[in-house]
Design a protein that fits this description.
The complex is a heterodimer of chains A (102) and B (154). Chain A has no helices and seven strands. With 102 residues, chain A is an all-beta fold. Chain A has a single domain, classed as Immunoglobulin-like. In chain A, strand 1 and strand 2 form a beta hairpin. In chain A, 37% of the residues are buried. In chain B, the strands form two sheets. In chain B, strands 1, 3, 5, 6, 8 and 9 form a six-stranded mixed sheet that branches. In chain B, strand 8 and strand 9 form a beta hairpin. Chain B has 154 residues and is α+β, with helices and mostly antiparallel strands. Classes of the chains: A mainly beta (102), B alpha+beta (154). At the A-B interface, strand 3, strand 4 and strand 5 of A face strand 4, strand 6 and strand 7 of B.
Chain lengths: 102, 154
């Protein structure tokens, strides 16, 4: 499941956008063909760090839309600063990615 | 319900203990990996709020919620929370009418400023409540999003 990170320094504040391809299943939807419940499958935690220092610990429930798009802002960051994102879902699957501020 | 919560808690904590024991988690990461099951599983707004942020707070004009007045598609509703309050340590977003009201919460640290954007699911027209922890004090702002079923854009 791909994780995309976008961050561009603009003045003093930099917005970091993270997009993860993830189904974010609630566990309450039924499969139309089998009429069985589709098991819950959603991201629970995500950490965003800049230059190895954590800036945001995100917790999510099933109320977050499919393919979550998360945005946070940091001050004082500059072009070239390293961003690291890691996430974990309720099935224990993990993912993430590395990027740098443009 | 109680039994289920108990079982879930036991399984989760024992899994964590096994992971920690196997050296998969460094001590500092144990807390970060903690998912507040009680808050996310709570089925009414009052208990979700209590578990997630400790209780209801006063309304603040310094918290701005940017969300559409009307959403054609309840499955993807963009929500942006911005605040000029000082020492923001966390921002929680609740959808009052959803089966489990707490949608997401972010704990901010380091150079992060009081800002959080995400996209939430909404079952029907509902109030969205943003709770901000500013220096240990809980403050909130609300916005109502009308969800049209089968509505078309424009």
């Amino acid at each position: 499941m791909a994780t995309k990170i976008k961050a561009r320094a603009k003045g003093d504040v930099t917005e970091i956008l993270v997009l993860v391809q993830h189904p974010m299943e609630t566990g309450q939807r039924k499969d139309k063909k089998t009429a069985k419940l589709i098991p819950a499958h959603f991201i629970q935690t995500m950490n965003i760090a800049v230059n190895g220092k954590s800036v945001a610990d995100v917790s999510m429930g099933t109320g977050v839309s499919k393919n979550p798009l998360v945005g946070v802002q940091v001050k004082g960051a500059k072009s070239g600063d390293k961003i690291k994102v890691t996430w974990k879902d309720n099935k224990g699957e993990t993912g993430g990615g590395d990027s740098a501020i443009k | 319900m109680k039994r289920r919560t108990f079982l879930k808690g036991t399984v989760a904590s024992s899994a964590l203990a096994v992971a920690a024991g196997a050296g998969l988690l460094k001590s500092g990461q144990v807390l970060a990996a903690d998912w507040a099951a009680d808050a996310f599983n709570a089925r009414d707004l009052a208990s979700a709020t209590k578990s997630a942020v400790g209780g209801d707070g006063a309304a603040s004009a310094d918290i701005k919620i940017k969300a559409p007045l009307q959403a054609e598609n309840g499955a993807v509703v963009p929500v942006k929370v911005e605040t000029s309050l000082a020492d923001v340590t966390s921002i929680a977003i609740m959808v009052a009418e959803n089966p489990t009201p707490l949608a997401t919460k972010v704990d901010l640290s380091g150079d992060a400023v009081g800002f959080y954007s995400t996209r939430v699911k909404m079952g029907k027209t509902s109030e969205i409540i943003a709770y901000v922890n500013s220096g240990g004090k809980i403050l909130k702002s609300t916005a109502t999003v009308k969800v049209t079923v089968g509505g078309c854009g424009g």
